[in-house]
Amino acid sequence: LLLRYCQRHLKWVHHFQAMTTVPAKAELFSFFSGNGFQPFFTQSEFVLDVSELPAAQAGQLVPIGVEEYRTLREELLSERIHIDLEPDGILYQHGICQTVGGGLYRLEGGESPALLCAENAGYGTFYIKELLGDATAAQQACALLPTVTPQGQRYFFRRPGTEKPFGMLKFLDPTAEEGWDWSQSGYLGLAFD
Protein backbone atom coordinates (compact mmCIF):
# COMPACT_ATOMS: atom_id res chain seq x y z
CA LEU A 1 0.00 0.00 0.00
CA LEU A 2 2.76 2.45 0.92
CA LEU A 3 4.71 1.55 -2.20
CA ARG A 4 1.66 2.17 -4.40
CA TYR A 5 1.06 5.52 -2.72
CA CYS A 6 4.69 6.54 -3.37
CA GLN A 7 4.42 5.55 -7.01
CA ARG A 8 1.23 7.56 -7.52
CA HIS A 9 2.61 10.55 -5.66
CA LEU A 10 5.84 10.58 -7.68
CA LYS A 11 3.98 10.18 -10.97
CA TRP A 12 1.05 12.54 -10.50
CA VAL A 13 2.36 15.18 -8.11
CA HIS A 14 6.01 15.37 -9.13
CA HIS A 15 5.64 14.07 -12.72
CA PHE A 16 8.51 11.60 -12.34
CA GLN A 17 8.86 9.09 -15.15
CA ALA A 18 10.63 6.46 -13.04
CA MET A 19 11.59 5.60 -9.50
CA THR A 20 14.47 3.71 -7.91
CA THR A 21 15.03 1.73 -4.76
CA VAL A 22 18.00 0.13 -3.03
CA PRO A 23 16.89 -3.08 -1.30
CA ALA A 24 18.42 -3.28 2.18
CA LYS A 25 19.05 -7.03 1.81
CA ALA A 26 19.55 -9.36 -1.14
CA GLU A 27 16.28 -11.13 -0.24
CA LEU A 28 14.32 -7.93 -0.88
CA PHE A 29 15.18 -7.91 -4.58
CA SER A 30 12.48 -10.54 -5.12
CA PHE A 31 9.94 -8.48 -3.12
CA PHE A 32 10.55 -5.40 -5.24
CA SER A 33 10.58 -7.49 -8.45
CA GLY A 34 7.08 -8.62 -7.48
CA ASN A 35 6.12 -4.94 -7.38
CA GLY A 36 7.34 -4.12 -10.87
CA PHE A 37 10.94 -3.09 -10.17
CA GLN A 38 13.80 -4.54 -12.18
CA PRO A 39 17.46 -4.86 -11.17
CA PHE A 40 19.40 -2.19 -12.99
CA PHE A 41 22.03 -0.49 -10.83
CA THR A 42 25.24 -2.38 -10.12
CA GLN A 43 28.58 -1.67 -8.48
CA SER A 44 31.85 -3.23 -7.44
CA GLU A 45 32.67 -3.73 -3.77
CA PHE A 46 35.91 -4.72 -2.12
CA VAL A 47 37.55 -4.59 1.31
CA LEU A 48 41.18 -3.76 2.08
CA ASP A 49 43.05 -3.66 5.35
CA VAL A 50 45.44 -0.74 5.72
CA SER A 51 48.36 -3.11 5.07
CA GLU A 52 46.81 -4.08 1.72
CA LEU A 53 46.52 -0.53 0.39
CA PRO A 54 48.82 0.25 -2.54
CA ALA A 55 52.18 1.81 -1.71
CA ALA A 56 52.06 5.56 -1.15
CA GLN A 57 52.41 7.63 -4.29
CA ALA A 58 52.78 11.28 -5.16
CA GLY A 59 49.78 13.52 -4.87
CA GLN A 60 47.31 14.26 -2.12
CA LEU A 61 43.65 13.94 -1.23
CA VAL A 62 42.15 17.39 -0.86
CA PRO A 63 38.84 18.05 0.95
CA ILE A 64 36.31 19.64 -1.39
CA GLY A 65 32.82 21.08 -1.21
CA VAL A 66 29.52 19.84 -2.55
CA GLU A 67 29.44 21.81 -5.81
CA GLU A 68 32.98 20.82 -6.81
CA TYR A 69 32.27 17.19 -5.93
CA ARG A 70 29.08 17.20 -8.00
CA THR A 71 30.75 18.84 -11.01
CA LEU A 72 33.69 16.42 -11.03
CA ARG A 73 31.37 13.49 -10.35
CA GLU A 74 29.32 14.30 -13.43
CA GLU A 75 32.49 14.55 -15.52
CA LEU A 76 33.79 11.19 -14.28
CA LEU A 77 30.43 9.47 -14.85
CA SER A 78 29.59 11.15 -18.17
CA GLU A 79 30.07 7.94 -20.19
CA ARG A 80 27.88 5.82 -17.91
CA ILE A 81 24.16 5.72 -17.12
CA HIS A 82 23.94 7.05 -13.57
CA ILE A 83 21.89 9.04 -11.10
CA ASP A 84 22.81 12.72 -11.07
CA LEU A 85 22.54 13.63 -7.41
CA GLU A 86 21.18 17.04 -6.60
CA PRO A 87 23.36 19.26 -4.39
CA ASP A 88 21.12 18.55 -1.37
CA GLY A 89 21.76 14.80 -1.70
CA ILE A 90 25.52 15.31 -1.80
CA LEU A 91 25.29 17.85 1.05
CA TYR A 92 23.51 15.21 3.14
CA GLN A 93 26.31 12.70 2.53
CA HIS A 94 28.95 15.35 3.14
CA GLY A 95 27.35 16.28 6.48
CA ILE A 96 27.18 12.68 7.68
CA CYS A 97 30.78 12.02 6.68
CA GLN A 98 32.18 15.21 8.22
CA THR A 99 30.32 14.62 11.47
CA VAL A 100 32.07 11.29 12.02
CA GLY A 101 35.52 12.13 10.68
CA GLY A 102 35.37 11.76 6.92
CA GLY A 103 34.37 13.87 3.97
CA LEU A 104 34.47 14.46 0.23
CA TYR A 105 37.92 14.34 -1.37
CA ARG A 106 39.54 14.99 -4.74
CA LEU A 107 42.84 13.53 -5.86
CA GLU A 108 45.29 16.32 -6.58
CA GLY A 109 48.53 15.67 -8.45
CA GLY A 110 47.38 12.45 -10.08
CA GLU A 111 47.71 11.51 -13.73
CA SER A 112 43.91 11.61 -13.95
CA PRO A 113 41.12 12.75 -11.61
CA ALA A 114 39.61 10.73 -8.77
CA LEU A 115 36.95 11.45 -6.15
CA LEU A 116 35.91 9.70 -2.99
CA CYS A 117 33.39 10.00 -0.20
CA ALA A 118 34.70 8.58 3.10
CA GLU A 119 32.71 7.87 6.26
CA ASN A 120 34.30 6.85 9.55
CA ALA A 121 32.29 3.94 10.98
CA GLY A 122 34.42 3.80 14.13
CA TYR A 123 36.87 1.25 15.47
CA GLY A 124 39.27 1.88 12.58
CA THR A 125 36.68 1.10 9.88
CA PHE A 126 35.98 3.47 7.00
CA TYR A 127 33.32 3.19 4.32
CA ILE A 128 34.47 4.63 1.04
CA LYS A 129 30.91 5.08 -0.14
CA GLU A 130 32.01 6.17 -3.58
CA LEU A 131 35.37 5.90 -5.33
CA LEU A 132 35.40 7.38 -8.83
CA GLY A 133 38.15 7.58 -11.42
CA ASP A 134 40.01 5.28 -13.76
CA ALA A 135 41.90 2.32 -12.30
CA THR A 136 45.20 4.23 -11.97
CA ALA A 137 43.62 7.24 -10.27
CA ALA A 138 41.52 5.05 -7.97
CA GLN A 139 44.63 3.12 -6.93
CA GLN A 140 46.49 6.37 -6.24
CA ALA A 141 43.57 7.67 -4.17
CA CYS A 142 43.51 4.39 -2.18
CA ALA A 143 47.23 4.69 -1.50
CA LEU A 144 46.69 8.17 -0.04
CA LEU A 145 43.77 7.24 2.24
CA PRO A 146 45.92 7.01 5.42
CA THR A 147 46.80 10.71 5.00
CA VAL A 148 43.15 11.72 5.53
CA THR A 149 42.06 8.76 7.68
CA PRO A 150 45.05 8.23 10.03
CA GLN A 151 43.01 5.97 12.34
CA GLY A 152 41.86 3.76 9.44
CA GLN A 153 42.59 0.05 9.69
CA ARG A 154 39.99 -1.41 7.34
CA TYR A 155 38.30 0.09 4.29
CA PHE A 156 35.08 -1.00 2.56
CA PHE A 157 34.93 0.34 -1.01
CA ARG A 158 32.13 0.89 -3.51
CA ARG A 159 32.81 1.97 -7.08
CA PRO A 160 31.17 1.68 -10.49
CA GLY A 161 31.14 -1.87 -11.79
CA THR A 162 28.87 -4.72 -12.77
CA GLU A 163 29.73 -7.36 -10.18
CA LYS A 164 27.02 -6.74 -7.58
CA PRO A 165 23.35 -5.78 -7.95
CA PHE A 166 22.73 -2.63 -5.94
CA GLY A 167 19.52 -0.88 -6.93
CA MET A 168 16.34 -1.34 -8.92
CA LEU A 169 14.38 0.75 -11.40
CA LYS A 170 10.69 0.99 -12.20
CA PHE A 171 9.20 3.15 -14.91
CA LEU A 172 6.05 5.00 -13.89
CA ASP A 173 5.39 6.21 -17.43
CA PRO A 174 5.21 3.37 -19.99
CA THR A 175 6.22 5.71 -22.83
CA ALA A 176 9.50 6.49 -21.02
CA GLU A 177 10.30 2.76 -20.92
CA GLU A 178 9.83 2.27 -24.67
CA GLY A 179 13.15 1.39 -26.23
CA TRP A 180 14.91 1.12 -22.86
CA ASP A 181 17.82 -1.31 -23.01
CA TRP A 182 17.52 -3.48 -19.90
CA SER A 183 20.71 -5.34 -20.84
CA GLN A 184 22.71 -2.33 -19.67
CA SER A 185 23.39 -1.44 -16.07
CA GLY A 186 23.58 1.92 -14.37
CA TYR A 187 25.42 3.38 -11.42
CA LEU A 188 23.44 4.73 -8.51
CA GLY A 189 26.37 5.68 -6.32
CA LEU A 190 25.82 7.42 -3.06
CA ALA A 191 22.80 5.77 -1.55
CA PHE A 192 21.33 7.22 1.62
CA ASP A 193 22.71 4.54 3.90
What can you tell me about this protein's structure?
The protein has 193 residues and is of the alpha+beta class. Helices cover 31% and strands 32% of the residues. The chain contains 6 helices and 7 strands, in the order H-E-H-E-E-H-H-E-E-E-H-E-H. It has helices at 2-13, 28-33, 66-76, 87-99, 135-148, 174-177, and strands at 18-21, 38-49, 60-63, 103-108, 114-122, 125-133, 154-171. Strands 1, 2, 3, 4, 5, 6 and 7 form a 7-stranded mixed beta sheet that branches. Strand 4 and strand 5 (114-122) form a beta hairpin. Helix 3 (66-76) packs across helix 4 (87-99). The radius of gyration is 18 Å and the shape is elongated. The mean pLDDT is 94.
- Runs in which pLDDT lies below 50 for 5 or more consecutive residues are none
Order of helices and strands: HEHEEHHEEEHEH
Structural class: alpha+beta
Main pleated-sheet profile: 7 strands, mixed
Quaternary structure type: single chain
Q: Report the sheet-strand fraction.
A: 25-35%
How far apart the termini lie comes to 23 Å
Helical segment count? 6
Radius of gyration: 18 Å
